[in-house]
Amino acid sequence: MRLHLGGHLAWYESQKRSRVEISVPRSTLLIDVLRELVIPPGEIAIAVVNGAAVDLQTARVSDADRVELFPPVGGGM
Q: Which domains does the chain have, with CATH numbers?
């Protein structure tokens, strides 16, 4: 699975990379993958699998998928 960690989410990856390849040999809940990677689900505002926005709690992923995760964005005046 190709995983993109947007914004500060790369901080949770052990080598602080924003793009990672991980092995997910069978269909698995995305939320379980995040728990294994120690990425707090509460830090994710948008989850995208193969170009489509998905529900973080119910989405399933496997090796062939491209996953993008983005935190909430704040700022401005």
A: 2-70 (3.10.20.30)
